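Help needed: design a sequence for this.
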C-alpha cells in the first residue's frame, strides 16, 4: 500500500510544503525560533527572545492546548519542552497542511500577538 499509493513521495512533497508554510509563519511570529525536520516529521522551536534563544516552554504548552481546541493534535518535545513536534500520518495532504498552518497562525495571533 505504501508503494502503490506513493505515500513516501507524498510525505516528502507535503512535508516540504508544510515546512515552507511554517517558515513563512516564522517570518510573522517572533515566538517561532526555528523550523526543522524532514518529510512529515517537523519540529517548531519556540523562543521568548530570538537573540538569547530563551526557551518558550509554557508558551509551547499553551499552543498545544489551543491547537487541541481546534482539533489539531500536537505535542511538545526537546530538553526544554519548547519544541512542538508534528508527525502526521503518511496520508497527510496539502489541505491538511493548510489547516494546520492557518490554525497555528490564528492561535499565535490570538494569544501571542504582543510577543
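Sure. Designed sequence:
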Amino acid at each position: 500500500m505504501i508503494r502503490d499509493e506513493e505515500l513516501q513521495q507524498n510525505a516528502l512533497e507535503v512535508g516540504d510544503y508544510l515546512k515552507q508554510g511554517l517558515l513563512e509563519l516564522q517570518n510573522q511570529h517572533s515566538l517561532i525560533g526555528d523550523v526543522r525536520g524532514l518529510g512529515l516529521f517537523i519540529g517548531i522551536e519556540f523562543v521568548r527572545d530570538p537573540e538569547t534563544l530563551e526557551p518558550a516552554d509554557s508558551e509551547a504548552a499553551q499552543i498545544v492546548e489551543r491547537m487541541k481546541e481546534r482539533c489539531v493534535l500536537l505535542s511538545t518535545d526537546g530538553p526544554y519542552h519548547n519544541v512542538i513536534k508534528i508527525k502526521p500520518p503518511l496520508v497527510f495532504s496539502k489541505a491538511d497542511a493548510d489547516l494546520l498552518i492557518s490554525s497555528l497562525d490564528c492561535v499565535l495571533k490570538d494569544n501571542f500577538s504582543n510577543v
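The longest strand covers residues 32-38.
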